[in-house]
């Protein structure tokens, strides 16, 4: 009997896809980063897709089931998942992934946050009260996040510690080269003025030197109104935007409206992995983002 059980265990351990570590990523970019670092040592579940609004996710029972079996939750933090993740983690009954435990990781802790409000007024429905959480669109942020993530994976899974650290090193080398290439290609975008649907692209703009001149949402998370759009259009005279940007998951109506009235291109960007067919991984995300922006100025 014992021999039989041993055989079964060995068989399970050698099955393809048998992974030491179960990772629950809240958004596609962190799922992709964990895969880059962990390779076949991790099994990654990603809770949302690039076509979902990451601010407005429901705490579905299927998410609870995944959280229950997770060794590590990788979240953005900075309030992005505040509407669903605390509930899922609490109700999972999984002690290992509670905030403060090694099984809980927040990427935003490892970057310099932009747009942290000086005066906080939650009554206005501001969904960026802890600063802008869309940190994935400055690729340089992925160095510190990736390094911290590799250390965390190593801490949780000591037998594979070397593999995680080597995985990060290999990723960082490729990432460094890719960033240099993107920065070269994106030089013509320096100083280009943009309107944005939501403040999805402040880190992207900070990195590439795009200049935000207006937001279609009157406040973060509040849908555009016709009055606000009309006011933005009037501002085109003095501070003209060269294009209007939206994330793949956002409705195209408001940006198409203002693009037509102002005679500028409306540009849909993947925003995260899976937002467009071209953005199949982290490298594709930035390849496609830079290409779409360049196409809009030519
Ligand atoms: Zn946001």
Annotate the secondary structure layout.
Layout: H1 2-14, E1 21-25, H2 28-38, E2 42-46, H3 61-68, E3 72-75, H4 85-92, E4 104-106, H5 141-156, H6 161-185, E5 193-196, H7 202-208, E6 211-215, H8 226-235, E7 243-247, H9 253-262, E8 266-269, H10 282-297
Parallel strand pairs: 1-2, 1-3, 3-4, 5-6, 5-7, 7-8
Helix pairs in contact: 2-5, 3-4, 5-6, 6-10, 8-9
The protein binds zinc ion (ZN).
How would you sum up this structure, described in words?
- This protein has 298 residues and is of the alpha/beta class.
- It contains ten helices and eight strands.
- It has helices spanning 2-14, 28-38, 61-68, 85-92, 141-156, 161-185, 202-208, 226-235, 253-262, 282-297, and strands spanning 21-25, 42-46, 72-75, 104-106, 193-196, 211-215, 243-247, 266-269.
- The longest helix has 25 residues, at 161-185.
- The protein starts with a helix and ends with a helix.
- Zinc ion binds next to loops.
- Zinc ion is lined by residues 55, 127-128, 134, 198-199, 220.
